[in-house]
UniProtKB/TrEMBL annotation:
InterPro entries: BCAA_transport, Leu-bd, Peripla_BP_I. Residues 36-373 form the Leucine-binding protein domain. It holds the Pfam family Peripla_BP_6. It comes from Bradyrhizobium aeschynomenes. Gene3D superfamilies: 3.40.50.2300. The keyword Transmembrane does not apply. This is ABC transporter substrate-binding protein. Residues 1-31 form the signal peptide.
Amino acid sequence: MTFATGKGRTRLAAVGLVAGLAALTLTAVHARAQAPLKIGVLGDFSSVYSDIGGQGNLEATKLAVEEFGGTMFGKPIEVISADPQNKADIAASISRKWYENEAVDMIIDMPTSATALAGMEMSKQFEKIMIVTDAASSDITGKSCSPYTLHWTYDTYGNAHTVGQAIVKNGGDSWFFITADYLFGHSIERDTGDVVRASGGKVVGSARHPLNNQDFSSFLLQAQASKAKIIGMANGGGDTINTIKQAAEFGIVAGGQNLAGIVMFISDIHSLGLKLAQGLIITEAYYWDLNDRTRAFGKKFFDKMKRMPTMNQAATYSATLHYLNAVKAAGTRDTKPVLAKMRETPVRDAFTDNGFVREDGRMVHSMFLFEVKKPEESKGPWDYYKVLAEVPGDQVFRPLKDGNCPYVKQ
Protein backbone atom coordinates (compact mmCIF):
# COMPACT_ATOMS: atom_id res chain seq x y z
CA MET A 1 0.00 0.00 0.00
CA THR A 2 1.32 3.49 -0.87
CA PHE A 3 0.40 6.79 0.71
CA ALA A 4 0.49 10.22 -0.91
CA THR A 5 2.58 12.74 1.00
CA GLY A 6 3.42 16.45 0.60
CA LYS A 7 2.86 17.64 -2.97
CA GLY A 8 1.16 14.36 -3.83
CA ARG A 9 -1.55 15.00 -1.26
CA THR A 10 -2.01 18.52 -2.60
CA ARG A 11 -2.39 17.21 -6.16
CA LEU A 12 -4.90 14.59 -5.06
CA ALA A 13 -6.89 17.21 -3.18
CA ALA A 14 -6.91 19.49 -6.23
CA VAL A 15 -8.01 16.64 -8.49
CA GLY A 16 -10.75 15.80 -6.00
CA LEU A 17 -11.90 19.42 -5.86
CA VAL A 18 -12.04 19.68 -9.66
CA ALA A 19 -13.93 16.40 -9.90
CA GLY A 20 -16.35 17.58 -7.22
CA LEU A 21 -16.97 20.88 -8.99
CA ALA A 22 -17.47 19.08 -12.30
CA ALA A 23 -19.99 16.76 -10.68
CA LEU A 24 -21.84 19.70 -9.15
CA THR A 25 -21.90 21.47 -12.53
CA LEU A 26 -23.24 18.38 -14.29
CA THR A 27 -25.86 17.97 -11.57
CA ALA A 28 -26.94 21.62 -11.97
CA VAL A 29 -27.10 21.29 -15.77
CA HIS A 30 -29.11 18.08 -15.45
CA ALA A 31 -31.47 19.66 -12.91
CA ARG A 32 -32.02 22.68 -15.17
CA ALA A 33 -32.71 20.39 -18.13
CA GLN A 34 -35.34 18.57 -16.07
CA ALA A 35 -36.98 21.73 -14.66
CA PRO A 36 -40.06 23.25 -16.31
CA LEU A 37 -39.53 26.27 -18.56
CA LYS A 38 -40.26 29.31 -16.40
CA ILE A 39 -41.27 32.85 -17.44
CA GLY A 40 -41.30 35.78 -15.02
CA VAL A 41 -43.61 38.78 -15.58
CA LEU A 42 -42.11 41.78 -13.79
CA GLY A 43 -44.73 44.52 -14.03
CA ASP A 44 -46.63 47.38 -12.44
CA PHE A 45 -49.68 45.80 -10.80
CA SER A 46 -50.58 48.65 -8.47
CA SER A 47 -49.49 52.08 -9.70
CA VAL A 48 -49.45 54.57 -12.56
CA TYR A 49 -48.75 52.03 -15.35
CA SER A 50 -51.00 49.18 -14.18
CA ASP A 51 -53.68 49.86 -16.84
CA ILE A 52 -51.08 49.85 -19.62
CA GLY A 53 -49.47 46.56 -18.59
CA GLY A 54 -49.97 45.04 -15.15
CA GLN A 55 -52.49 42.21 -14.86
CA GLY A 56 -53.18 42.54 -18.58
CA ASN A 57 -49.55 41.67 -19.37
CA LEU A 58 -49.74 38.66 -17.08
CA GLU A 59 -52.94 37.45 -18.77
CA ALA A 60 -51.40 38.09 -22.22
CA THR A 61 -48.42 35.93 -21.25
CA LYS A 62 -50.74 33.16 -20.11
CA LEU A 63 -52.76 33.43 -23.35
CA ALA A 64 -49.56 32.94 -25.36
CA VAL A 65 -48.58 29.92 -23.25
CA GLU A 66 -52.08 28.47 -23.67
CA GLU A 67 -52.02 29.04 -27.44
CA PHE A 68 -48.59 27.41 -27.66
CA GLY A 69 -49.95 24.29 -25.99
CA GLY A 70 -48.94 24.83 -22.36
CA THR A 71 -45.93 22.53 -22.28
CA MET A 72 -42.28 22.55 -23.32
CA PHE A 73 -40.09 19.46 -23.49
CA GLY A 74 -42.88 17.42 -21.90
CA LYS A 75 -43.38 19.65 -18.84
CA PRO A 76 -45.94 22.40 -18.11
CA ILE A 77 -44.64 25.92 -18.71
CA GLU A 78 -44.65 28.00 -15.51
CA VAL A 79 -45.51 31.71 -15.32
CA ILE A 80 -44.74 33.74 -12.19
CA SER A 81 -45.10 37.47 -11.50
CA ALA A 82 -43.96 40.26 -9.19
CA ASP A 83 -44.29 44.05 -8.81
CA PRO A 84 -41.04 46.05 -8.50
CA GLN A 85 -43.05 49.14 -7.40
CA ASN A 86 -41.43 51.05 -10.28
CA LYS A 87 -38.13 51.08 -8.33
CA ALA A 88 -34.87 50.15 -10.02
CA ASP A 89 -33.28 48.54 -6.95
CA ILE A 90 -36.30 46.29 -6.37
CA ALA A 91 -36.37 45.33 -10.06
CA ALA A 92 -32.68 44.38 -9.88
CA SER A 93 -33.21 42.36 -6.69
CA ILE A 94 -36.18 40.40 -8.09
CA SER A 95 -34.41 39.79 -11.40
CA ARG A 96 -31.33 38.47 -9.59
CA LYS A 97 -33.42 36.17 -7.40
CA TRP A 98 -35.41 34.85 -10.33
CA TYR A 99 -32.39 34.19 -12.55
CA GLU A 100 -30.07 32.91 -9.84
CA ASN A 101 -32.31 31.00 -7.42
CA GLU A 102 -35.66 30.31 -9.09
CA ALA A 103 -34.54 28.98 -12.49
CA VAL A 104 -36.46 31.64 -14.44
CA ASP A 105 -35.51 31.36 -18.11
CA MET A 106 -36.97 34.64 -19.41
CA ILE A 107 -38.25 37.84 -17.80
CA ILE A 108 -40.78 39.98 -19.64
CA ASP A 109 -42.56 43.37 -19.19
CA MET A 110 -40.38 45.84 -17.14
CA PRO A 111 -42.75 48.78 -16.46
CA THR A 112 -40.35 51.74 -16.53
CA SER A 113 -37.08 52.56 -18.24
CA ALA A 114 -35.22 52.66 -14.92
CA THR A 115 -36.50 49.22 -13.89
CA ALA A 116 -35.68 47.89 -17.35
CA LEU A 117 -32.09 49.10 -17.25
CA ALA A 118 -31.63 47.67 -13.74
CA GLY A 119 -33.05 44.31 -14.79
CA MET A 120 -30.93 44.31 -17.94
CA GLU A 121 -27.78 44.35 -15.78
CA MET A 122 -28.94 41.12 -14.12
CA SER A 123 -29.80 39.69 -17.53
CA LYS A 124 -26.23 40.37 -18.66
CA GLN A 125 -24.72 39.01 -15.46
CA PHE A 126 -26.59 35.71 -15.67
CA GLU A 127 -26.71 35.59 -19.50
CA LYS A 128 -30.49 35.11 -19.46
CA ILE A 129 -33.13 36.57 -21.78
CA MET A 130 -35.13 39.69 -20.94
CA ILE A 131 -37.88 41.11 -23.19
CA VAL A 132 -38.96 44.70 -22.51
CA THR A 133 -42.57 45.31 -23.56
CA ASP A 134 -43.56 48.31 -21.37
CA ALA A 135 -40.54 50.58 -20.83
CA ALA A 136 -39.92 53.07 -23.64
CA SER A 137 -36.48 54.71 -23.53
CA SER A 138 -34.64 54.38 -26.83
CA ASP A 139 -31.44 53.93 -24.75
CA ILE A 140 -32.55 50.30 -24.17
CA THR A 141 -31.32 49.44 -27.67
CA GLY A 142 -28.89 52.37 -27.84
CA LYS A 143 -26.02 53.23 -25.53
CA SER A 144 -27.40 50.97 -22.74
CA CYS A 145 -28.17 47.95 -24.95
CA SER A 146 -27.53 44.35 -23.92
CA PRO A 147 -26.87 41.22 -26.00
CA TYR A 148 -29.55 39.41 -23.96
CA THR A 149 -32.36 42.00 -24.05
CA LEU A 150 -35.01 42.54 -26.73
CA HIS A 151 -37.18 45.67 -26.94
CA TRP A 152 -40.53 44.74 -28.41
CA THR A 153 -43.33 47.33 -28.43
CA TYR A 154 -42.30 50.93 -29.08
CA ASP A 155 -39.67 53.44 -27.98
CA THR A 156 -39.30 57.16 -27.46
CA TYR A 157 -37.40 57.63 -30.74
CA GLY A 158 -40.09 55.88 -32.80
CA ASN A 159 -43.02 57.66 -31.14
CA ALA A 160 -41.30 61.02 -31.41
CA HIS A 161 -40.73 60.55 -35.12
CA THR A 162 -44.27 59.44 -35.95
CA VAL A 163 -46.25 61.88 -33.77
CA GLY A 164 -43.80 64.77 -33.55
CA GLN A 165 -43.12 64.92 -37.26
CA ALA A 166 -46.82 64.76 -38.18
CA ILE A 167 -47.75 67.57 -35.81
CA VAL A 168 -44.94 69.91 -36.94
CA LYS A 169 -45.89 69.31 -40.58
CA ASN A 170 -49.44 70.39 -39.70
CA GLY A 171 -48.27 73.71 -38.24
CA GLY A 172 -47.48 72.78 -34.63
CA ASP A 173 -44.00 74.28 -34.76
CA SER A 174 -43.52 75.63 -31.21
CA TRP A 175 -43.48 73.20 -28.26
CA PHE A 176 -43.45 73.22 -24.46
CA PHE A 177 -42.95 69.89 -22.65
CA ILE A 178 -44.53 68.65 -19.43
CA THR A 179 -42.08 65.91 -18.54
CA ALA A 180 -42.01 63.02 -16.06
CA ASP A 181 -38.76 63.56 -14.16
CA TYR A 182 -36.98 60.28 -14.82
CA LEU A 183 -35.34 58.50 -17.75
CA PHE A 184 -38.56 57.76 -19.67
CA GLY A 185 -39.76 61.37 -19.62
CA HIS A 186 -36.31 62.74 -20.32
CA SER A 187 -36.00 60.41 -23.33
CA ILE A 188 -39.36 61.52 -24.76
CA GLU A 189 -38.47 65.20 -24.36
CA ARG A 190 -35.03 64.66 -25.91
CA ASP A 191 -36.17 62.55 -28.85
CA THR A 192 -39.26 64.62 -29.65
CA GLY A 193 -37.37 67.87 -29.24
CA ASP A 194 -34.80 66.62 -31.76
CA VAL A 195 -37.59 65.85 -34.24
CA VAL A 196 -39.27 69.24 -33.73
CA ARG A 197 -36.02 71.13 -34.31
CA ALA A 198 -35.03 68.96 -37.29
CA SER A 199 -38.45 69.65 -38.84
CA GLY A 200 -38.01 73.43 -38.53
CA GLY A 201 -39.83 73.97 -35.23
CA LYS A 202 -38.59 75.16 -31.83
CA VAL A 203 -38.81 74.06 -28.20
CA VAL A 204 -39.59 77.06 -25.98
CA GLY A 205 -39.35 75.35 -22.59
CA SER A 206 -40.27 72.46 -20.30
CA ALA A 207 -41.45 71.68 -16.77
CA ARG A 208 -40.62 68.46 -14.94
CA HIS A 209 -42.91 66.66 -12.52
CA PRO A 210 -42.47 63.61 -10.22
CA LEU A 211 -43.74 60.19 -11.28
CA ASN A 212 -47.35 59.43 -10.30
CA ASN A 213 -48.11 63.12 -9.77
CA GLN A 214 -51.59 64.34 -8.84
CA ASP A 215 -51.51 68.14 -9.20
CA PHE A 216 -50.34 69.52 -12.57
CA SER A 217 -51.53 73.10 -12.07
CA SER A 218 -48.10 74.75 -11.75
CA PHE A 219 -46.75 72.88 -14.80
CA LEU A 220 -49.81 73.72 -16.90
CA LEU A 221 -49.59 77.40 -15.94
CA GLN A 222 -45.98 77.45 -17.15
CA ALA A 223 -47.06 75.78 -20.41
CA GLN A 224 -49.90 78.25 -20.83
CA ALA A 225 -47.60 81.23 -20.21
CA SER A 226 -45.11 79.93 -22.80
CA LYS A 227 -47.67 80.53 -25.57
CA ALA A 228 -46.33 77.42 -27.34
CA LYS A 229 -48.72 76.05 -29.96
CA ILE A 230 -48.16 72.48 -28.72
CA ILE A 231 -47.89 71.19 -25.17
CA GLY A 232 -46.04 67.90 -25.46
CA MET A 233 -46.87 65.41 -22.71
CA ALA A 234 -43.58 63.64 -22.04
CA ASN A 235 -45.18 61.29 -19.54
CA GLY A 236 -47.44 58.25 -19.54
CA GLY A 237 -50.32 56.35 -17.98
CA GLY A 238 -52.04 58.07 -15.06
CA ASP A 239 -49.77 61.10 -15.37
CA THR A 240 -50.90 61.72 -18.96
CA ILE A 241 -54.55 61.25 -18.01
CA ASN A 242 -54.24 63.75 -15.15
CA THR A 243 -52.42 66.24 -17.39
CA ILE A 244 -55.23 66.16 -19.98
CA LYS A 245 -58.04 66.36 -17.41
CA GLN A 246 -56.48 69.33 -15.63
CA ALA A 247 -55.59 71.05 -18.93
CA ALA A 248 -59.33 71.02 -19.71
CA GLU A 249 -60.05 72.67 -16.36
CA PHE A 250 -57.56 75.43 -17.21
CA GLY A 251 -59.16 75.92 -20.64
CA ILE A 252 -55.85 75.36 -22.40
CA VAL A 253 -57.21 73.80 -25.60
CA ALA A 254 -60.14 76.25 -25.64
CA GLY A 255 -57.52 79.02 -25.43
CA GLY A 256 -55.85 77.92 -28.66
CA GLN A 257 -53.03 75.62 -27.52
CA ASN A 258 -53.05 71.91 -28.38
CA LEU A 259 -51.92 68.83 -26.46
CA ALA A 260 -49.66 66.18 -28.00
CA GLY A 261 -49.87 62.66 -26.56
CA ILE A 262 -46.48 61.26 -27.53
CA VAL A 263 -46.87 58.00 -25.59
CA MET A 264 -50.55 57.16 -25.18
CA PHE A 265 -52.62 54.00 -25.06
CA ILE A 266 -56.19 52.94 -25.69
CA SER A 267 -56.62 52.51 -21.92
CA ASP A 268 -55.86 56.24 -21.53
CA ILE A 269 -58.56 57.12 -24.09
CA HIS A 270 -61.01 54.83 -22.29
CA SER A 271 -60.28 56.52 -18.95
CA LEU A 272 -60.56 60.03 -20.40
CA GLY A 273 -63.65 59.45 -22.55
CA LEU A 274 -64.01 60.72 -26.11
CA LYS A 275 -65.33 64.11 -25.05
CA LEU A 276 -61.93 64.99 -23.55
CA ALA A 277 -59.71 62.89 -25.85
CA GLN A 278 -61.32 63.65 -29.25
CA GLY A 279 -58.95 64.95 -31.88
CA LEU A 280 -55.74 63.78 -30.17
CA ILE A 281 -53.12 62.50 -32.63
CA ILE A 282 -51.31 59.50 -31.18
CA THR A 283 -49.23 56.56 -32.32
CA GLU A 284 -49.64 52.91 -31.37
CA ALA A 285 -48.31 49.64 -32.71
CA TYR A 286 -51.59 47.75 -32.23
CA TYR A 287 -55.32 48.48 -32.26
CA TRP A 288 -57.85 45.74 -31.70
CA ASP A 289 -60.04 46.74 -34.67
CA LEU A 290 -57.44 46.86 -37.45
CA ASN A 291 -58.04 43.46 -39.06
CA ASP A 292 -59.22 39.89 -38.41
CA ARG A 293 -56.02 38.93 -36.51
CA THR A 294 -56.15 41.92 -34.17
CA ARG A 295 -59.87 41.42 -33.58
CA ALA A 296 -59.41 37.72 -32.75
CA PHE A 297 -56.77 38.47 -30.11
CA GLY A 298 -58.80 41.41 -28.83
CA LYS A 299 -61.80 39.13 -28.28
CA LYS A 300 -59.73 36.49 -26.44
CA PHE A 301 -58.20 39.16 -24.22
CA PHE A 302 -61.58 40.84 -23.62
CA ASP A 303 -63.06 37.52 -22.51
CA LYS A 304 -60.38 37.35 -19.79
CA MET A 305 -60.07 41.00 -18.78
CA LYS A 306 -63.40 42.64 -19.82
CA ARG A 307 -61.43 45.36 -21.62
CA MET A 308 -59.52 45.59 -24.88
CA PRO A 309 -55.73 45.13 -24.82
CA THR A 310 -53.26 47.97 -24.98
CA MET A 311 -50.41 47.70 -27.47
CA ASN A 312 -48.13 46.66 -24.58
CA GLN A 313 -50.42 43.79 -23.65
CA ALA A 314 -50.67 42.64 -27.28
CA ALA A 315 -46.87 42.93 -27.53
CA THR A 316 -46.37 40.85 -24.38
CA TYR A 317 -48.49 38.10 -25.93
CA SER A 318 -46.49 38.40 -29.18
CA ALA A 319 -43.07 38.35 -27.51
CA THR A 320 -43.96 35.38 -25.28
CA LEU A 321 -45.26 33.36 -28.23
CA HIS A 322 -42.21 34.22 -30.36
CA TYR A 323 -39.92 33.18 -27.50
CA LEU A 324 -41.71 29.86 -26.97
CA ASN A 325 -41.59 29.05 -30.68
CA ALA A 326 -37.87 29.86 -30.70
CA VAL A 327 -37.18 27.55 -27.72
CA LYS A 328 -39.06 24.75 -29.49
CA ALA A 329 -37.22 25.36 -32.79
CA ALA A 330 -33.83 25.50 -31.05
CA GLY A 331 -34.56 22.32 -29.10
CA THR A 332 -33.06 23.92 -26.00
CA ARG A 333 -33.71 26.67 -23.48
CA ASP A 334 -30.08 27.83 -23.66
CA THR A 335 -29.91 31.58 -24.23
CA LYS A 336 -27.73 31.97 -27.31
CA PRO A 337 -29.42 29.43 -29.60
CA VAL A 338 -32.86 30.70 -28.55
CA LEU A 339 -31.90 34.32 -29.28
CA ALA A 340 -30.48 33.24 -32.65
CA LYS A 341 -33.82 31.64 -33.53
CA MET A 342 -35.74 34.72 -32.38
CA ARG A 343 -33.58 36.90 -34.63
CA GLU A 344 -33.77 34.70 -37.71
CA THR A 345 -37.55 34.11 -37.52
CA PRO A 346 -39.94 36.86 -38.72
CA VAL A 347 -42.59 38.03 -36.23
CA ARG A 348 -46.03 37.29 -37.69
CA ASP A 349 -48.90 37.28 -35.23
CA ALA A 350 -51.82 39.33 -33.87
CA PHE A 351 -49.47 42.17 -32.89
CA THR A 352 -47.69 42.62 -36.22
CA ASP A 353 -47.41 40.94 -39.61
CA ASN A 354 -44.08 42.53 -40.55
CA GLY A 355 -41.78 42.33 -37.52
CA PHE A 356 -38.18 41.20 -37.16
CA VAL A 357 -35.60 41.31 -34.35
CA ARG A 358 -32.55 43.41 -35.09
CA GLU A 359 -28.97 42.88 -33.90
CA ASP A 360 -29.32 45.56 -31.18
CA GLY A 361 -32.44 43.86 -29.77
CA ARG A 362 -34.97 46.23 -31.35
CA MET A 363 -38.02 44.42 -32.74
CA VAL A 364 -38.75 46.48 -35.84
CA HIS A 365 -42.37 46.73 -37.04
CA SER A 366 -44.90 49.22 -38.38
CA MET A 367 -46.49 51.85 -36.17
CA PHE A 368 -49.87 53.47 -36.81
CA LEU A 369 -50.78 57.14 -36.62
CA PHE A 370 -54.31 57.49 -35.18
CA GLU A 371 -56.74 60.30 -34.57
CA VAL A 372 -59.12 59.85 -31.63
CA LYS A 373 -62.75 59.87 -32.82
CA LYS A 374 -65.37 62.39 -31.83
CA PRO A 375 -68.10 60.96 -29.56
CA GLU A 376 -70.63 60.96 -32.41
CA GLU A 377 -68.24 59.00 -34.67
CA SER A 378 -67.85 56.09 -32.25
CA LYS A 379 -70.10 53.06 -32.66
CA GLY A 380 -69.59 51.87 -29.08
CA PRO A 381 -67.12 51.14 -26.26
CA TRP A 382 -63.49 50.78 -27.46
CA ASP A 383 -64.31 52.10 -30.96
CA TYR A 384 -61.93 55.00 -30.53
CA TYR A 385 -59.49 55.40 -33.43
CA LYS A 386 -59.38 56.54 -37.03
CA VAL A 387 -56.30 55.32 -38.92
CA LEU A 388 -54.37 58.22 -40.45
CA ALA A 389 -51.32 56.28 -41.64
CA GLU A 390 -49.31 53.08 -41.26
CA VAL A 391 -45.63 54.00 -40.94
CA PRO A 392 -43.13 51.26 -41.93
CA GLY A 393 -40.67 50.14 -39.26
CA ASP A 394 -37.62 51.35 -41.15
CA GLN A 395 -39.09 54.87 -41.03
CA VAL A 396 -40.11 54.60 -37.38
CA PHE A 397 -37.18 53.22 -35.44
CA ARG A 398 -33.69 54.67 -35.17
CA PRO A 399 -31.26 53.30 -37.78
CA LEU A 400 -29.01 50.59 -36.38
CA LYS A 401 -25.86 52.56 -37.18
CA ASP A 402 -27.06 55.58 -35.15
CA GLY A 403 -27.84 53.80 -31.89
CA ASN A 404 -24.29 53.50 -30.48
CA CYS A 405 -25.06 50.03 -29.11
CA PRO A 406 -21.64 48.68 -28.07
CA TYR A 407 -22.56 45.11 -29.06
CA VAL A 408 -23.34 45.99 -32.69
CA LYS A 409 -20.53 45.59 -35.19
CA GLN A 410 -20.07 48.85 -37.04
